Amino acid sequence: MDGPQFLGLQPTDDPNRWNLPVVPAVLSGGGALFGGCGLAAAMEAMEATTGRPTIWATAQYLSFARPPASVSIEVVAMVEGHQTSQARAIGRVGDEEIFTVNAALGVRPSELQGQWAARPPVPPPEECPPRVLEDRHAASIMQRLTLRLADARPLDELEGPSADGRCSLWARLDGLASSTTTLAILGDFVPFGISQALGRWAGGTSLDNTIRVARRVPTEWVHLDIRVQAVTDGYGHGLVHLWAEDGTLLGTASQTAVVRRWRP
Q: What is the average pLDDT across 83-112?
């Protein structure tokens, strides 16, 4: 299936407005709309409205949307150039603004190409142990993901901070072809990296998520190379490199999250 089908994103009679029902399939473990799903829905809506692929998009999360709400997404095309569009998408439940996404979209054909980032060596997905989910993930987006610990510790082995703040997962969104939605959802994993970096039962509520799209290639599994740079004053900052199985850099994501302790 494609991204809008995976999310349940629905068009309306107005080509600039879309609806996203808030159902368990798009929830976080906290019972609210998963931030990556909100960003994915906004990106898919902007791509459909402008007819152009995303170059970068940044979301600011303002409030929570919980079932049985439906998020109304309004797309505003602010600038339409020959090859690049600048757009904004605002997600609301009633009069309450849930998220705002700004983006640039377009394609500029050029012979200038290159990739200088390199994927860190990890075993292939079939050789990595599965990530065991917690009970709070029973009715959430996590039930639609297959996750394997490429370079990460199980929760019961978090016994002190990591040396460099880095960890990694292999991830697959079951039933979804590699897409814009894939990158937006899998880019929302800095909170997972925070617990790994601290070596504590901790996580975070995302304040933002920025996606920069490098290349779009088919891949069943995506390698999430998560790098937490700092946790201070109650906030964590980090980024995720998103890699195809063949080593192609699909994109990068960066986030700041409110850090909270978990109870085992």
A: 96
Residue 81 lies in a domain: yes
Same domain, 132 and 254: yes
Residue 43 has pLDDT above 90, yes or no: yes
pLDDT by residue (tens digit) across 222-243? 999 999 999 999 999 999 999 9
Same domain, 90 and 138: no
Task: Please give the mean pLDDT across all residues of the chain.
Answer: 95
For residue 68, how far is the Cα from the chain centroid? 22
Q: What is the dihedral of CA 125, 243, 153, 200, to 10 degrees?
A: -150
Q: From the centroid of its chain, how far is CA 95?
A: 25
161 with 45, same domain: the answer is: no
* CA nearest to 204, candidates 166, 186, 231: 231
Q: How many domains are contained in the chain?
A: 2
Residues 151 and 203 in one domain: yes
Contact present, 208 and 150 (Cβ < 8 Å): no
CB neighbours of residue 114 within 10 Å:
4
Residue 70 token pair: 């439906």
Give the domain range for residue 46. 3-106
Give residue 204's pLDDT: 84
C-alpha angle 56/21/105, rounded to 5°? Answer: 15
Do 171 and 246 share a domain, yes or no? yes
Res 264: pLDDT: 63
